# Entry
Amino acid sequence: MSILLNPDTSWLLTVAEQLLSGKTYGLDIMESNPPASALLYIPAVLFAKLTDITSETATVIYVLDLAALSWLFLSHLFRRRAVLSPKAFPAFFFGLAFFTDVFPFGHFAQKEHVVLLLTLPYLGLAAVNTEDGRPAFPQKLAAGLGLGLALCVKPHFVLVPAFITVATCLRRRRFSGFFNVEHAVAALIVLAYAALLLTLFSYYTSTVLPLTVEGYALLRKPFAELLLGPGGAFYDGVYVPVLLAVVVALRLHYGANPVQTVFLLAGCGFYAAFLAQGRGYSYQLYPATACLFLAVCSGFSPAKPMWIVTRLAAVGAFLYLGLLFSLIPILGVGLDLLVTYPGEIATLSALKPQPDMLCLCTSPDTGFPDVRGAGGHWVGRYSHSWAAQAMTPQQVDEIARGTLDAPQVRLTLQQIGDTAADILENRPDLILLENHPQFVTLVLNQADATRALADYEEATRLERPQGQIIVYRLKSPAFGG
# Structure
């Protein structure tokens, strides 16, 4: 069986492949994330084409290579600059390997995963800079390149260098830390990317970006829910405050070291970016978790007195319990990739080998990675209707009566209408319809969608814990299609 990746990454690989085939971002592909999110996977897709392997396999190799390069960069940097105690090396690099290769599990190769790997050289260089270590110019270029690419993908992560630089400037009582080679390189890359957005990706900036800003503003969670709800720091992310407490305890007892300081600030910056995004997805906590855990590892030394080791073990036990709860969403996606999706892929392949497909749904995991696992071809503009994600049954009833007119409604109806047009134009072999009562009602109340589905028949239903997915198959001419 071929490798399967999580739904978001699977969709972005599809976008990257379509870009290379000549499709236009913002016209043929309606993706809410900025183009850098798909461009991030272009190297993997090109490698797959050159070596005749799947894009998923190439992506795994690509991410593991990025992780290995980050390890080599940090190892070389820290060994030549006395910023990390030799006794802390084993714990730090064990933690680094665990959090870059193992911990992501079901969300392996997510944007946040790749972006953290790109940011690691900058974090290592920042630790050296706090001690006036004077890193080599090529190291500064590499760190600036990684940081610039990361900021193009996730602009919210500008809070990470901001936290680190402000703290460094306050400690030194001068502001020269803002003006260095790595920041200049990162700024140039961001400016070049902005120019690309205005030229090569003008359809995205003029068409999709306004819809995204309007739609995502409606989906933003309240601050209290970001902390206490699923995906929040004190629910799925209970380990975030625990890790902060452990780092503070280590610093109070043993004093600080530059590596620990930088990764502590980076963890706080990544967590602030999580809050700024306002979505509350558990995988968005991954960079903060990894950096705070590495801040703990950088202060660990086997030569410390046993009473400290026992106390760390007690804190570690509590932390482990937190991780068990926090990993539920990640484990859930991982188990889906191992169990649920392979069964669905077999069902879809039996209905039609290598089918042309699209979805009417509110989540990308309705169609991905199923379509890729079945060797299918995506023929729609949207992976899902992101504006319909927060639609309530009451809103659907009001739409049906024609008494509700709001931005979310206009966006949802536009996306359903566009998908209906894709069905009529491209005649996919299979259509997946998310069987949530209010969403099905909303879709079937639209004349365009009803007309588009007229030549399709229900073939089967896929059972998932969160609800059914209705699979429609194009009618054979023998059945009056």
